[in-house]
Amino acid sequence: MSVQVEIPSMGESVSEVILLEWLKSDGERVERDEPLCVLETDKANVELPSPASGALKHLQSTDTTLAIGAVVAEIDESTQVAAPAPASKPEPAAPKPEPTLSPAVRRLVEEHELDSAAIEGTGKDGRLTKKDVLAHLETLSAPEPAPEPIQPPSVPEPAQPPPIPKPAPPPEPKSTPAPEPAQPPPAPASPGLTRREPMSRLRQRIAEHLVAAQHNAAMLTTFNEIDMSAVMQLRAKYKERFAQVHGSSLGLMSFFSRAAVLALGEFPAINAQIDGTHIVYHDFVNLGIAVSTERGLVVPVLHRADQMSIAQLESNIKRLALSARDNKLAMDELSGGTFTITNGGVFGSLLSTPILNAPQSGILGMHAIQERPVAVEGQVVIRPMMYVALSYDHRLVDGQQSVSFLVRLKELLEDPARLLLEV
Predict the structure, then answer these.
(1) How far apart are the first and last CA of the chain?
(2) Which of 52, 85, 159, 175 fits as disulfide partner to 3, beta carbons 3.0 to 4.6 Å?
(3) Residue 398 annotated in active site
(4) Edge-to-edge strands of the sheet including 45-49?
């Protein structure tokens, strides 16, 4: 009996994937839930698990674009695949093993038809990095120096007497200067500092989605600032005890996540979405947390964040971040988000206008904490301040709602006791 392996649904905005890499060979024995291949989406790379145990049969080749629901392989449950018999004697000279390549490096090598074994790797255990491949390409594209013109001999010396005698040369012949070679076109001002690379299909789709988000929504951003003194004092006081009890550090994201959940409960339009001529309201919060990875920004989803405490939020945010960076996210962790938080402050951003993660209607942008002079009860004091930004779909969310949402967020974070009392 054969079981078909289909590309599963990966969320509202994902309609197709790219078969990036097979993890199991054609005909190889696989076990249920064992990863078969790596799929590339516009959100992250995900591994496709086997739905059954048996012999694997590839039905699609790598680098193929597949629609959701397409059959990528079959599992023959009735076939018993025997392990390969050991070789009778070792080969006298085994070829050099092909280096293990990451998906990004493999794609770059294949696009430029390079021999990965000929490139020296500087990564861990000699692995190739994207920087190594780009440096190799730059070496190949560097212009070769023009060969020096060859001066012809002053007196030709034929190998045999010519059939027709020629007059004797003058006593002291002068060498005939070689004709000057044609002048090449002027070289660029900075050779080797510019390179041209094809945009990956993943990057193309990300670009399409970002442009579509701005074209399909009346996007607007409003700002406020938050005095982070109380949160920072609370973290400093309890961070060691928190780590002992819960096994994770106490970060800022869990405070903002809890505050956002409570504020969304008061302003449900920011947690809703437009579907044609209808508004879809969610009586729950599936919180997207933007995570920076080697491939770019990934937004894993924390399902039912509204039911989690600060400790549970912190633990799950850390788990999702590690899974995103290791390409270990489950497929359901990439879909179903109703609201997103992104923190550009970890890179030093002081202010930005985040772009909506369609079809969501709101996204909260956090920024760097900076000590600034502020007025408190008639006195100028220095406080750790953070600008926050809410981008929203103005078709659904009014200005009064967006401003009030940020004011509520400010109240909750400047007096963290409100997070526990929900007041």
Answers:
(1) 59
(2) 52
(3) yes
(4) 45-49, 35-40, 16-22, 64-67
Q: Which of 26, 33, 275, 398 is catalytic?
A: 398
**Rounded Cα distance, 50 and 275, in Å:** 34
> CA-to-CA distance for 340 and 289, rounded, in angstroms?
6
The answer to whether residues 388 and 414 touch, using CB atoms and an 8 Å cutoff, is no
Stated length of the chain: 423
123: its two tokens: 């990564």
Q: Which residues contact 256 (CB under 8 A, 6 or more apart)?
A: 341, 364, 366, 409, 413
DSSP single-letter state for residue 83: P
User: pLDDT class for 292, splitting at 50, 70, 90?
Assistant: confident
pTM, two decimal places: 0.66
Task: Kindly name the residue from 112, 209, 282, 394 that is annotated as catalytic.
Answer: 394
- For residue 47, give the 3-state DSSP assignment: strand
Note if 282 is an active site residue: no
> What amino acid is encoded at 395 in this protein?
R
Cα 10–chain centre separation: 17
Which residue type is seen at 247?
A: G
Please state, in angstroms and as integers, the Cα–Cα distance from residue 375 to each residue in 26, 335, 380, following that order. Answer: 69, 43, 5
- Paired sense of beta strands 301-302 and 287-289, if any: antiparallel
> Residue 30 in contact with residue 284, Cβ under 8 Å?
no
Per residue in 133-180, pLDDT tens?
777 777 776 555 555 555 555 545 555 555 555 555 555 555 555 555
DSSP letters spanning 228-272: -HHHHHHHHHHHHHHHHHHSS---HHHHHHHHHHHHHHH-GGGG-
Alpha helices in 185-228 (DSSP H): 201-215
Per the structure block, which two tokens stand in for 240? 């060691």
Q: Is the pLDDT assigned to residue 220 strictly greater than 90?
A: yes
